[in-house]
Design goal:
The chain has 23 helices and eleven strands. With 496 residues, the protein is of the alpha/beta class. Strands 2-5-8-1-9 form a five-stranded parallel beta sheet, with helices on both faces. Strand 6 and strand 7 (348-351) form a beta hairpin.
């Protein structure tokens, strides 16, 4: 048993990204903030290292929780989000200011773990759906053929031809007698059957294969068919509770769904839509939800990441009147979750001992030392993110994979317009963003979004009607479009 665990652990560490690789991946999307990237890279690598330890030691190793200190728009949230996406870990961003201590109206702190568990279940379910996708599509094809060509009923089928049943199918064009016979039998009572001869069975199979090929060639996509789909209606129940519905931890939908009988309803939809509906039903039948939930809970406990934003908003220990009264109370309620406790969710018990918590805040008014000592001790790593300068803005506009410059060029390309942004235009935009941040309020890289939107406002509006399909944006164009901002001293009137 120990050998198995050892080999599994070795594989875990071998497959994990090294800290340098993690930083390199983050560099593709986030400019600067090298110290913060190093901290989260080490914290992530330590998770893989922990998996290599013996069981008794593994449980003792606490996650290296991090506090990121910096103004808005410097990349705190983006670092955490990209980190989670990099390792496909369950990730949730919550704002500390929306939680209140027990006894006050608002969300209780345990709801963040319940939300994380729900997210992990959906993540694992999607992965399992991809695994069984091919099998689900095969079963879907068989069900579509059953709707198109039910098993033959010879006596009734012969009568249908004698009665001259009218079959209208523009999508099929000219059909053979075998195909017309197969479709004709759909109009009769399926309970009236007779024995099917081998010859008729072979004929039915040949017809079925012809339609199978047409389905695969997508020649019947617009043909409407009537299918039976699951329809589970859940009564609407409204509960008023001063303590919040999440504390009751009642999953009404699942409760009523298990009590009420499963019903089906008929829908007439095109085959293209029917394929999607039936494929989803078949995939759900193939997925073992017990395994999904078990895997999801394990992921939350061992690789879950909670990004606790605006922690500085609750960093006040003095009792005051008004909304600040519950600040310290929120800290004390969050503490057990970060220390390690067991939270009851609808998917079972979830332990928070090894969930990685990344907190962030601007700490303009308060400072990290204003947090209660117990909470400070649970965040051993503190990183200060630097404010962005003009050079950083230039890099943000051009270097990342999702750079703003690339986004706007690609969007206007859909209208058939080729946009070229010169270097002096990029320099001008960066200089203006830095100037506005210095003059009004420093909101970091978010200032670039507002300036770029104003810069492209006229071009985006008139794009469909422009005759000129090649446009160059230079420094003069930037100055012309943003002249109101340059001239007016009250910059905040135009860009916030």
């Amino acid at each position: 048993m120990s050998t198995l665990n050892s080999s599994s652990s070795q594989k875990t560490l071998a497959d994990a990204l090294t800290p340098k690789q993690i930083v390199e991946e983050l560099d593709k999307y986030i400019i600067g903030q090298a110290e913060a990237k190093r901290s989260v890279a080490v914290a992530l690598r330590n998770r893989a290292r922990r998996q290599m330890l013996e069981d008794d030691m593994r449980d003792e190793v606490a996650p290296k929780n991090i506090i990121m200190i910096g103004t808005t728009g410097v990349g705190k949230t983006e670092i955490a989000r990209r980190l989670a996406r990099l390792v496909e870990a369950p990730f949730i961003k919550v704002e500390a200011s929306k939680y209140t201590e027990v006894g006050y109206v608002g969300r209780d702190v345990e709801s963040m773990i319940r939300d994380l568990a729900d997210l992990a279940v959906n993540m694992v379910k999607s992965e399992q759906a991809e695994i069984v996708k091919e099998k689900a599509l095969e079963l879907t094809e068989e069900r579509l053929l059953d709707f198109l060509i039910p098993p033959p009923r010879p006596k009734i089928a012969a009568e249908s031809v004698e009665r001259g049943v009218e079959i209208t199918d523009e999508a099929e064009g000219d059909m053979s007698d075998e195909e017309r016979l197969a479709l004709a039998v759909q109009q009769f009572d399926p309970t009236e059957r007779s024995e099917i001869s081998e010859q008729e069975q072979e004929r039915y199979q040949r017809t079925r294969e012809k339609f199978r090929q047409r389905l695969r060639d997508e020649k019947l996509e617009d043909k409407p068919i009537e299918i039976n789909v699951s329809n589970r209606t859940v009564p609407f129940v409204e509960i008023f509770s001063p303590s919040g519905i999440e504390e009751m931890d009642i999953n009404l939908k699942d409760m009523f769904g298990s009590i009420l009988p499963k019903q089906e309803k008929k829908r007439r939809v095109p085959i293209s839509e029917a394929r999607q509906i039936l494929a989803q039903e078949e995939a759900e039948k193939l997925i073992d939800m017990d395994n999904v939930v078990s895997e999801a809970v394990a992921r939350v406990e061992n690789s879950g990441i909670v990004f606790l934003d605006e922690i500085d908003k609750i960093a006040g220990r003095e009792s005051k009147s008004g909304p600040d009264v519950s600040r310290e109370g929120v800290q004390r309620d969050i503490l057990p979750i970060i220390e390690g406790s067991t939270v009851m969710t609808k998917h079972g018990m979830v332990r928070t001992d090894h969930i990685l918590f990344i907190a962030s805040g601007a700490f303009h008014v308060s400072k990290p030392s204003d947090l209660i000592p117990e909470l400070q001790g649970r965040f051993p790593i503190r990183v200060e993110l630097k404010s962005l300068n003009e050079a950083d803005f230039i890099r943000i506009l051009t270097e990342p994979k999702n750079a703003l410059e690339k986004q706007y060029i690609a969007m206007l390309k859909t209208e058939g317009i080729d946009v070229t942004i010169t270097e002096d235009a990029i320099d001008q935009i960066a200089a203006l963003a830095f100037q506005v941040n210095e003059s009004v309020e420093d909101i970091g890289a978010r200032r670039l979004h507002t300036i770029m939107e104003k810069l492209f406002d006229e071009l985006s509006f008139n794009a469909p009607d422009l005759e000129e399909k090649s446009i160059t944006i230079n420094a003069d164009y930037v100055t012309d479009q943003l002249s109101e901002i340059v001239r007016d001293e009250d910059i905040s009137k135009y860009i916030l």
